[in-house]
Amino acid sequence: MSEVPAYLREGYITPDELFRKIPKPSEERLRARPVAVPECPQEIPCAPCREICPTNAISMPTPNDLPVVDYEKCIGCSLCVQICPGLAFFMVHYVGDKARITMPHELLPLPERGEEVVLLNRIGEPVGKGKVLTVVPREKTKGDTPIIIVEVPIELAWDVRAIKVVRE
Amino acid sequence: MRLNEHPILKFKRGREVTIYFNGEPITAHEGEPIAAALHAAGIRVLNYSNNRERPRGLFCAIGKCSSCLMVVNGIPNVRTCITLVEDGMRIEPQRGKAKLPKEAKPPEFRDAKGMKADIVVIGGGPAGLMAAINAADAGARVVLIDENPMLGGQLVKQTHKFFGKREQFAGVRGVEIAKILENEVRKRENVQVFLETSAVGIFQEGDEKLVLGVRKNRELIEFRGRALIVATGAMEKMIPFENNDLPGIYGAGAIQTLMNTYGVKPGDRVLIVGAGNVGLILAYQLIQAGVEVKAIVEAMPKVGGYFVHAAKVRRLGVPILTRHTILRAEGKERVERAVVAQLDDNWRPIPGTEEVFDVDVIALAVGLRPSIELLHQAGCQIRYVRELGGHVAVRDSWMETTVRGIFVAGDTAGIEEATTAMLEGKVAGISAALRLGIAEESWVREIERAQRDLEEFRSGPFGRHVAEGIRKLLAEVGGNV
Amino acid sequence: MSDGKVIVCRCNDVTVEEIEALIDKGVTDIEEIKRLLRIGMGPCQGRTCIPIVLGILARKTGRRQEEIPLPRARVPIRPVRVEVIVGGTNE
Amino acid sequence: MSKVAIIGGGIIGVATAYELAKLGEDVVLFEKNYFGSGSTFRCATGIRAQFTDEANIRLMKHSVERWEKLEGELGFDINFKQTGYLFLATSEEEVEGFKANIALQNKFGVPTRLIDMDEAREIVPILNTEPFLAGAWNPKDGKANPFKTLFAYLFRAKELGVDAREHTEVVGFEREGDTITAVRFRSNGKVESVKVDAVLNAANAWAPLINEMAGLKRDLVPITAYKHQLVKTEPLEPGQAEPLVCPPGWDDAYIIQDGEDGGIICGAGIEHRARSLDDYEPTYDFLRGVLRYATMIAPPLRHAHIVRQWAGFYAKTPDSNPAIGKLLDNFYIAAGFSGHGFMMAPAVAQAVAELISKGHSKVPLDWEWYDPHRFERGELRTSAFQIG
After folding, report:
1. What is the chain D residue with the closest CA to C38?
2. What average pLDDT score do residues A65-86 get?
């Protein structure tokens, strides 16, 4: 029983566990421009992220290997976030004391640009509020998945992975 | 309750009609089954069982389990999950065993309609569609039959995007893949499609095989072919627990059918049993339809499906309770509560760990088993192979079973993914055409290519398991061709 | 444990207890269990119940599932209205 | 106490095992597949005394009387119900034939009578009265559940000490002169043998193979397997077609409502010679043919759903009467029942057990009529009427 990794027991992965699998982007890189970080710790037969990446920044010798992003080659285009069937790609960008998280959002309602939304961590707990900076609807993405960019306090950069739209 | 808005799907409903439940008018839409219309109107109890008069509702939603029998226009034992509404229909719950109407004229004895082809493909899901496309391209005349009103099989209920490589439709939603494949099939003049047509039996007639087809439960059709490809998919498993037959306990596929095919909300609060891919995907689909998922319980110590599917629902607040099981359902005529408990290392519930969930739906996603009934009935050798989901037909690497001329593909050959189903369908379609002497030898290369793709797909930890199961079957027929 | 509420076969309302009791009586061939309890003989033709019965049988007799043959599948594999077989439904 | 081996775990073998154990004999019973797997579990459940010759009428009258007491004696619900047999005439000649049969049956105490179609319709509410002129009706005929009956006998037999072995195939005998001294059998791949004082061949369609193993000619008792099929509907409320209803003029087609689950069983004499002794494959011509007749007999059946079609063997002798008696000093046969084994079993088992144990029997079984040596003498009986 003990060999079951925590992420498979719990159904979510902590940043610590994640960064034991893949390197964490440097502070400098995170400030330079958005960088793609896959939360895909399990070998499954899947390769669209590698196939769509315009700069070959994602390495994956066979579809059953884990995606590893070369953060220096990554230009932050978000195509991997748009295409990923597992909705497991995110982009993080540090700007001042905020972090901008790019994430898929396949639920209704889709937030509007500028709307304040509730920030959810990896187990769906509300951890604060943040502003939606960008909304790319389904029709406009390359992978049929709507994506949004949300601004969150920088200390929540590695916690917030979903949002909830709350309207009166 | 009907769904109107959905982040992925658009529901096109037919003309409004009126049906009568116990004399009360209900609005329904043309093209939807009786059970879906009743469900939308909040009616869950469809009949009272034969021997113990227990209330029963929908369970499989695809005409297989007999849990939805009702009296329609005076005719008993009608499967309301696959019988479409008609204006003015009178519907009553069935209580115990049915009585036939006393008066009737003897039906006229008429010859059945006959259809001939080189290859008859049974099942229009990913495997059957690819089999038909490839067999046709290899030169065969193909008849494709499916019991549903639309092609695509389970793909039509799948709002998520598929894995694999992009040439295998990775990153494309199941619903979209269904449309793409359907267009490919419709484009080919040497493929004839029969929808709402069930294959109910296979009889050998010399070199030919007779597939007995029933269209819309009204018309008998004799399909004759020199080869058959059986791609009839899978069936949901059931598990024993107290009150496991209460209305409101559905197979995961039934919920997907209600919600994603007919746009009917299955309920308000759901407990899902099973954290394999089906359970995890279902949870996400329920959230997309605006239904609350209270928890997913899983007897194993870990999530059985892909981690990424689990992460998707966890971050939307759904707990996944590994090492937990359902003890019982409670409720008078329908599910009102579910009682769950933790399991010890010997799979026994630990007293004192019971937890009650207030739910009106319990979804069973405890695994699938191959739908091998036709193959079994036709005399194909059947083996139990755990890695492939249960009983499967012994077959060779060209997907031919032990009955010459009968091929198998997709979940029927072993529970796996839509991606592998499509590849297997391709192999079966081409090899059937080759074995009939229709296809050119060069098509062998296409089979080899599909086999390499299958091998690659199965090289990870998930696929290795399946590959092991297939090795067991191949060992029995003594290797390759 | 639950006085007949754990249903294995929906068509004939057969419970886990009934299956276990019959196996305890020495009836261990799936074809015999099927006929005595009418498991798999209702309108669903065993689709839901047979795997559960095989599981119980394997557990109680110490056999592996691989060693227990499936009961025969019969035509038609799903119920068909008599008039359809005869020649169509126009009355 | 002598050791008796019975070969064949169908209703005849199992019931005889029980009767022999009751008489204090030490019985070992061999079934190569599962109990009932031959013809018993494939039968149409009917029990009747409406035969057309004295021997069969008298035997079946006694058998029905045994059936009436069986449930109490065996202590097991076997769903025996006297719901009658209703034969229907489609021509005047047939009505005359019915009258003659009825007279013969009445003579031996079987209460058959001629009824009109109004009465017939009261008995079978979904009956089509139009095509028929009259019915031959015996309310004492009936039906029972073959699965439960076989197991009722088996459970009691085991309690009385019968060593009943399934999945155990008899592979040979040891014989000294005209006496069988031992039976060789294979179980789990291992061959063993058991010393015996007497052997009963109750293998029905397989009986010629057993005779051959005993050193007799395979066709000494010529038995041929004919595939007979049935189609059954899903469960229905009882009371809609309880009796076996049969117009013999329509290929011996019949319907009968199952006494347990209420499904309606449809049969017909559309027979095929079995290609081999595991040819149970149902045929398409039968499916359509039988349902055509069934809906002509009871039109509301058109609205029922069928759930299965299956085949079993009529193990037929040239005159369709069974072979019952002694073949060697201690080697007996009760086989070739030609479709009547289930209904005859209570009487035949009792008679054969008494014959083996005591050398004679008080059962009214006409040993000469059923003599297994009659075929080598070229002596055939009038063909027994073969329905369910």
Report:
1. D261
2. 97
Q: Does D155 touch chain C (CB under 8 A)?
A: yes
Return the SS3 of B27. Answer: strand
D275-311 tens-digit pLDDT: 999 999 999 999 999 999 999 999 999 999 999 999 9
Nearest to B288 among A107, A125, A162 (CB): A107
Which long-range contacts (C-beta less than 8 Å, at least 24 apart) are formed by B388-394? Answer: B388/B413, B388/B414, B388/B415, B388/B416, B388/B466, B388/B469, B388/B470, B388/B473, B389/B234, B389/B414, B389/B415, B390/B415, B390/C51, B391/C70, B392/B473, B394/B473, B394/B476, B394/B477
pLDDT tens-place string over residues C9-62: 999 999 999 999 999 999 999 999 999 999 989 888 888 899 999 999 999 999
Write out the two tokens for B314. 């966890």
B456 interfaces chain A, CB cutoff of 8 Å = yes
Residues D242 and D98 in one domain: yes
CATH 2.40.110.10 fits B16-95, yes or no: no
Its domain, for residue A40, covers 6-164
Q: What percent of chain B is modeled with pLDDT above 70?
A: 99
Is residue A74 domain-resident?
Answer: yes
Averaged pLDDT for residues D19-41: 98
Is residue B480 over pLDDT 50? no
Q: For residue D123, what is the domain's CATH number?
A: 3.30.9.10
Residue B394 in 3-state DSSP?
A: coil
Residue A53 lies in a domain: yes
pLDDT at D382 over 90: no
Classified by CATH at the fold level, domain B112-235+369-476 comes out as: FAD/NAD(P)-binding domain (3.50.50)
Same structural domain, D145 and D62: yes
Are B411 and B421 a contacting pair, CB within 8 Å? Answer: yes
Question: In the predicted model, what is the mean pLDDT of residues D6-11?
Answer: 98
Into how many domains does chain D fold?
2
Q: Does B312 touch chain A (CB under 8 A)?
A: yes
